[in-house]
Design goal:
It contains 6 helices and 12 strands. By secondary structure, it is an alpha+beta fold. It has 2 domains: 157 residues, Alpha-Beta Plaits, CATH 3.30.70; 66 residues, no CATH class. Strand 10 and strand 11 form a beta hairpin. 42% of the residues are buried.
């Protein structure tokens, strides 16, 4: 069963952050299963919603038919509990693709623009047969965790925190190297396909491609004859 493992750590200033925690879980999964990527999904930013620097969740994509939902759930839970920091309110959700129904997708889209409740999140998980658990604090992370399932399922939201070997390539890089590392296509924001040249990104950082209709797409902006990578939420 192909799985989506979604976490919202609702971290603190002292904690390593949801993205880093998701990559740690992905590394553990990789010992037994194929991990096809980790995506970040931006959620609603509002004064009534506690968050550190951003309000986002992360989803690990486990792309193998022999993935064990119970084993993946337990691995992720143990890693999250071991990394728990007082003041955080983590949540974890795990679902196979067939479990991601229209209401789950609707919940994910709503989570980008409005304040949602734990009650709705937990009822949705129960009615959809989705594994959902809070792992400390207020457990508000269950809201972002289940939202991540719906957003990741669409294949058209967020950006990749990990895909192929993209994170190994930092600084300015040739388009061909990026395509070989895991990016499927490079486009300018006005729709021109880029097949050659150097892509400039922030020093010491890797590019941030986006999922788009089942492909990994890097968006770039041309400035003064040079292509600069664009980070999109």
């Amino acid at each position: 069963m192909t799985l989506l493992v979604s976490i919202d750590d609702t971290d603190t200033i002292e904690s390593p952050g949801t993205g880093r925690l998701a990559r740690k879980i992905a590394a553990a999964f990789s010992k037994d299963y194929q991990v096809t990527g980790v995506t970040r999904h931006q959620l609603f930013v509002h004064p009534s919603i506690p968050y550190t620097s951003h309000n986002s969740c992360a989803v690990i994509h486990v792309g193998t038919d022999r993935a064990d939902p119970d084993a993946c759930f337990n691995i992720a839970r143990e890693i999250m509990l071991a990394d728990f920091v007082d003041g955080s309110d983590p949540g974890l959700a795990v679902a196979g693709l067939t479990q991601v129904t229209a209401p789950l997708v609707a919940f994910g889209k709503d989570a980008k623009k409005t304040i949602l409740t734990q009650e709705r999140a937990r009822n949705l998980a129960k009615n959809s047969g989705v594994r959902l658990i809070g792992l400390g604090g207020t457990e508000d992370g269950v809201i972002g965790a289940i939202a991540g399932l719906g957003l990741a399922f669409t294949g058209n939201d967020g950006r990749f925190l990990m895909k192929g070997h993209i994170r190994d390539l930092v600084g300015p890089r040739n388009v061909r190297d990026l395509l070989a590392a895991g990016i499927d296509e490079v486009f300018t924001l006005d729709g021109r396909r880029v097949t050659e040249g150097i892509i400039i990104t922030e020093e010491g950082k890797s590019v941030k491609p986006c999922p788009s209709h089942g492909k990994t797409v890097l968006f770039v902006e041309e400035l003064d004859g040079n292509f600069h990578s664009v980070k999109r939420d």
